[in-house]
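Section 5: illustrative case.
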């Protein structure tokens, strides 16, 4: 999350994300460099790209959603995941009807998160951007103009992806 002096609060590499304590959060500068000698999360370049590209973004969240991982692995060639017809779409910024269609970009995973961030920046050209993106076989990133806004998008997207995965499972007879 952005802090008032232009620095970014980010998790320390290796921290248990389900049990974060104050000691698990550190500050980095505007280029993602640690300010206290600790090692920031490996996803720091992905977060920094969003802060640089969209100055209104105040918080970025990265989660390893089971549904996001499974659905992106089921569609190894897809570059986007479309969601439409769900009432829950209205949890996304700017969406006012279930009749909307939201395309969530999908990117191939890479251990080179700096290169991945460049690839993401090249495709996220809209303003406003989509509410999130998926990283194939890894998880998802969402953002917002507040931490609460980013959390709302995470919760809605995880719900929608779980619905999509369950629908796929039911259509395929429950087998993977």
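Designed sequence:
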């Amino acid at each position: 999350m952005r802090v008032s002096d232009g620095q970014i609060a980010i998790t320390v590499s290796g921290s248990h994300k389900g049990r974060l304590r104050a000691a698990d959060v550190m500050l980095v500068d505007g280029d993602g460099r640690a300010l206290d000698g600790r090692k920031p999360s490996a996803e720091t370049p992905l977060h920094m790209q969003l802060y640089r590209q969209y100055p209104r973004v105040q918080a970025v969240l990265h989660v390893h959603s089971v549904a996001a991982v499974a659905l992106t692995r089921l569609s190894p060639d897809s570059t986007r995941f479309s969601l439409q017809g769900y009432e829950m779409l209205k949890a996304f910024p700017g969406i006012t009807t279930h009749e909307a269609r939201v395309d969530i970009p999908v990117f191939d995973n890479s251990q080179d998160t700096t290169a991945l961030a460049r690839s993401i920046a090249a495709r996220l050209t809209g303003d406003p951007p989509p509410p999130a993106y998926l990283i194939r076989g890894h998880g998802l990133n969402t953002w917002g103009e507040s931490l609460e806004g980013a959390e709302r998008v995470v919760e809605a997207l995880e719900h929608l992806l779980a619905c999509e995965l369950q629908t796929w499972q039911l259509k395929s007879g429950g087998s993977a």
